[in-house]
Specification:
This protein has about 150 residues and is an alpha/beta fold. Helices cover about 50% and strands about 15% of the residues. The two termini are about 15 Å apart.
């Protein structure tokens, strides 16, 4: 019998190596998992709308064009996911990550959050909806290892 390959969507903060740590840790353990995520090249993500649909003088409309296109990718990948991992970083407001978390919960997708203890209070409702809250990417790998064994 063939082992199911889990599809894990990695959402959130793009300014640290947390995705790579989860991916590499999963590879090292030989886990049957594939990973998807939003475009993590900030400039490519921000400019996709005007690159395809034409320039905008107002940054609001530039960002709106990009978010519409990016949301096609994000919503499709979250719908296809077996598990959604949402990382909230310490430096920036992560509105997109919070939206992804709510979308995942609304779809009934199991979710794991990943953030530092300083964010426990502002994320208490998000964490309540999560099946686990991790502090380190390696904890996510250990959860995946447990789930897939």
């Amino acid at each position: 019998m063939t082992q199911k390959i889990w599809n894990v969507y990695l959402s959130g903060e793009i300014h640290s190596d947390w995705r790579e740590r989860i991916i590499e840790g999963s590879k090292a353990k030989g886990l049957a998992v594939t990973f998807t995520s939003a475009v993590t090249d900030h400039d490519a993500s921000d400019m996709i709308g005007v690159n395809i649909l034409g320039s905008e003088e107002d940054n609001f409309w530039r960002d709106r064009k990009a978010s519409g296109i990016n949301s096609i990718r994000t919503s499709t990948q979250i719908k296809a996911a077996d598990l959604v991992v949402v990382r909230f970083g310490p430096q920036y407001k992560q509105w997109n990550a919070a939206f992804d978390a709510g979308f995942a919960v609304a779809l009934g997708k199991p979710m794991v959050t990943l953030h530092d203890a300083e964010l426990d209070h502002p994320l208490k409702e998000v964490d309540e909806a999560a099946k686990a809250t991790c502090r380190q990417p390696e904890q996510v790998v250990e959860i995946l290892s447990y789930l897939l064994s």
